[in-house]
Design brief:
Two copies of one chain form a homodimer.
Chain A (H helix, E strand, L loop, with lengths): L3 E8 L9 H15 L10 E5 L7 H9 L5 E6 L4 H14 L5 E8 L20 H16 L3 H15 L13 H5 L3 E3 L2 E2 L9 E9 H7 L4 E10 L13 H14 L8 E3 L5 H10 L8 H10 L10 H5 L3 H16 L13 E8 L4 E8 L1
Helix pairs in contact in A: 1-2, 3-12, 5-9, 5-10, 9-10
Chain lengths: 368, 368
């Protein structure tokens, strides 16, 4: 298997403005070209678009708009983890030897589909993600005696960390009491525990070891990959655990030949506050039953190890862009280019991205 | 690069009936399980869905419906060549060593999106494929003195060959005069020169060399891959040539290390009659300026080398399934299992699939 590196990237601002999908895709792609040395259109072998937008032929459209005539081009969709699915697809095209470089561009705009599992009629009116998030939250409170304050700390921390992310959707430094007193959207969920579907786009360029040198002095290697789809329906989930994330993480750690304790910085899929509390345990970043204490300690010590860019809660959640934006944050951290968000001496990073109540998950390990 | 084989397959009937996308996907997947020895759900590492349907999370839905809990799962879309894009994606997952087996299931239903390039406002009311097909046809007539009869022969041949394809949309043995006298949809295009968008689904199972032995005594190897996207807009095309197909074919022949003359059987993307006349030249299956004569000779000698299952014109064109259905036909031909459609002694086969006026193309070479 050939080695594959992240060698370039570009983000748009994440915003509540409705923006045409083609404009979003083009904007983050242009930033890759603006910031990657020696990059020209003829050096891009593949263009993979990640989105929940229902427009067709977007990879060809993005290619034409950006002057690329690629070999590989198509759209990848898998709800909220479309981004990491596209990344792994790009990885496999390069690792197999079929191509040398792949541009992966994700985007979604406010109001795009993918936020509700329309197909699952068994849910009736309860098909919005807030309902599964409520079930997870209720179960987490019951099983771990999790307090309202512990849940709020996740959101406070991530909103605070987003203050130093210039592309974040939110730049509001909420207090614990503001989170705790924010509007209840269900009995167990407050509005400020939810991530915001928004407009945004993120792009990365992947390349072989040989091509990586051309584009950057600091390639970041994708060393571990794990993916698992357990179901499409929420009914098969155990509460409050992300079983697909456990399996994906184990595979990713095995492939990277590292231990979870060696992870210096992680982007976790905090679609709702409870997801971060589950993920730190399910990915073995802390011991079972210590998730809330672990996050509280990070918060109290101003340690940005988990979700330094603000997570989905602080940065916003433009579905098709999210996984790619997570990849960019870890890449910047491992390149020591994360500015105010920088974790000192980060060598190994992790991306955790999932879909539909954690019925499927992706875990990626990156190393400098 | 690991070797990758087609080791199982399943087709539904192609029909004008409107069928739910989930039912279509499941039906061809079930046929793979019904006909592939030793195949069980736990042996499927990846589930890739190819479709233009706008429903989300279909790969997870198909996985749950069919009892598979895959690692890789997502949807691939690239208009009419979604199918071969999904095949090459599955190929690269296996060739890279990430997984051992991938199920690729394509489907579309009557009325699904993807038949019109909605985004291209510059076309005004002329955004239906019949308009680009008319431009190609007019240019072909002008440049090659192609007669109405020569165009009709493509359609007669493919409708005739579809008579022996039990899954074909059409089982009507049209005569040359019936084709020539069918309704004009534009000045240069008759209704019986058009392929039919319809409902249908096709699945193939890909596997490593090691796993291939488990599933079949006759694995068919994917030995050549070529892809090219030149644009999304028709305006950049030269007439009457499929320039992306030329590039894709050259790459595929190079990778397979074979000459076009060694191709024994080919599935070509005859979305309209003129496409087959262009493709046989652009893929170098016959000399420049001899396309119409070449097809007439095949027809007169009842040689089924080109589009033995009836092509898109005879078999129908359920967009996301088409490329996969082409793969199945070539697999059956190389396994000597194509029944009445069998080409004698076929060793090397070719699949040609394209999108949006040939602005992008895929060419795949298969060998026994």
């Amino acid at each position: 298997m050939k080695k594959v590196a992240v060698v370039g990237y570009g983000n748009t601002k994440f915003t509540k403005e409705v923006i045409p999908i083609e404009s979003l895709l083009l904007e983050s792609t242009k930033k890759v070209f603006d910031t990657t040395r020696n990059l020209s259109q003829d050096l891009v072998d593949g263009v993979i678009v990640s989105t929940n937008d229902s427009s067709k032929y977007l990879a060809a459209i993005l290619s034409e708009l950006s002057g690329i005539k690629p070999k590989v081009s198509h759209t990848v969709e898998h709800l909220c983890s479309s981004g990491t699915n596209a990344v792994i697809s790009g990885f496999s095209y390069i690792a197999s030897g079929l191509v040398d470089t792949v541009l992966i561009t994700g985007a979604d705009s406010v109001g795009n589909p993918g936020q509700v599992l329309e197909w699952d009629k068994s849910r009736g009116e309860f098909n919005h993600p807030i309902f599964w998030a409520s079930l997870f939250t209720k179960a987490h409170k019951r099983q771990h005696n999790t307090s309202e304050e512990e849940l709020a700390i996740v959101s406070v921390k991530n909103h605070k960390q987003a203050m130093d992310n210039p592309n974040a959707y939110s730049h509001n430094p909420y207090t614990i009491s503001e989170i705790m007193n924010s509007k209840n959207v269900t009995d167990d969920l407050r509005i400020l525990d939810c991530s915001y579907p928004c407009s945004g786009s993120s792009s990365i360029l992947l390349a072989t070891e040989e091509f990586a040198k051309k584009f950057t002095a600091e390639p970041i290697w994708i060393s571990g990959i794990g993916q698992k789809t357990n179901s499409a329906s929420f009914t098969k989930n155990e509460l409050p655990t992300l079983s697909s994330s456990i399996m994906a993480a184990n595979d990713a750690y095995d492939m990277a030949k590292i231990n979870s304790k060696e992870i210096d910085v992680a982007e976790l899929h905090d679609a709702f506050s409870v997801c971060e509390l589950m993920a730190v345990e399910d990915l073995n970043l802390t011991e079972k039953n210590t998730g809330a204490t672990y996050i509280r300690n990070l918060f109290n010590t101003e340690n940005r190890k988990i979700n330094p860019r603000g997570g989905l809660i602080g940065a916003g959640h433009p579905l098709g862009a999210t996984g790619i934006s997570q990849m960019i944050e870890i890449t910047q951290q491992l390149q020591n280019k994360a500015e105010k968000r920088q974790i000192s001496n980060a060598k190994n990073g992790l991306v955790h991205n999932m879909s539909a109540a954690g019925t499927s998950s992706t875990v990626l390990i990156l190393e400098s």
